[in-house]
Design a protein that fits this description.
Elements lengths: L3 H16 L5 H17 L3 H18 L3 H15 L10
Helix pairs in contact: 1-2, 2-3, 3-4
């Protein structure tokens, strides 16, 4: 949505639920991937790529349905291409 500064705290809080195992694997992957994208937009590339890889690994370990395969393809494309340039200047 182009507002990573606002998204990161909310996604970090959601990631706490992920870490406690409160979400299904596909929901965990979504949180990690969205946080990865927001962090990359803020210039935190290393952490962003790590989270995207965790999201990908979680989907593969859990087995994927059709919707999860779409997410997996999106994550793969994001990881293969150099992640997009930051939207915001620091």
């Amino acid at each position: 949505m182009g507002r990573p500064r606002e998204a990161v705290p909310l996604l970090e809080r959601a990631l706490g639920g992920v870490d406690r195992g409160e979400l299904r694997p596909s929901s965990r992957a979504v949180v990690r991937y969205k946080l990865a994208r927001a962090l990359r937009d803020l210039g935190e590339t290393e952490r962003a790529v790590g989270l995207a890889r965790e999201a990908r690994r979680g989907l593969l370990e859990a087995g994927t349905c059709a919707a999860d395969r779409d997410l997996l393809e999106e994550i793969d494309a994001w990881l293969v291409d150099e992640p997009p340039a930051p939207l915001l200047d620091e």
